[in-house]
Amino acid sequence: xMLPLTASRLIKLYDIPTQRAVIWQPHxxxxxxxxxxxxxxxxAAFLAQIGHESGGLRxxxxxxxxxxxxxxxxxxxxxxxxxxxxxERFMGRGPPQITGRRNYTLLSAALGVxxxxxxxxxxxxxxxxxxxxxxxxxxxxxxxxxxxRAALEKHGMGDGVNLNDLADRGDFExxxxxxxxxxxxxxxxxxxxxxxxxxxxVTPSHEGDPIRWEESP
Length: 217
Prior knowledge:
Layout (H helix, E strand, L loop, with lengths): L6 H8 L3 H17 L5 H15 L13 H4 L14 H4 L11 H11 L13 H15 L6 H8 L9 H7 L2 H9 L5 H14 L18
Helix pairs in contact: 1-2, 1-11, 2-7, 3-9, 3-11, 6-7, 8-10
């Protein structure tokens, strides 16, 4: 099943240069297929969230300024950072900003690529797109904070949650909690979500259907 994720739709959604959209389009499409982001509701939520996290696919590497927040990564057990220098070595990379030795190790096992010894590989568009799909389906559920767990209780969900399931239920706020730990930038995320629904041509009766709609004019 092919996704109607054309470069023109990425341009409209993120208001980005044509070249950036053309570069990312096939890799995002491949990742979305691989990680079952293949309904209208899932696609719109996924594209909105990674669009916010990456600044419209502009930032695939954390801007490192050794801020107090970034200094807290060093030797942070919650991130699996156990060796000196792990904080900067395993800074946020890829559209969802994969962070910490633990997540790099999990992603390496999932994709069969050694991102632990070669963390810079996550700055590649192909691996970056795959990291976004992996985090959406698996990674976010392995990194839940207290607020995310509270947001999931009403669905009877918890650790290991697949964000596709939340998209199916239309709980965009809970998705943000799982990705961000809070609701930082939620207004922008919601705006992108609305734009994604419009750009992808979603109507309420189609939100749970597999992606198979025709290219709109």
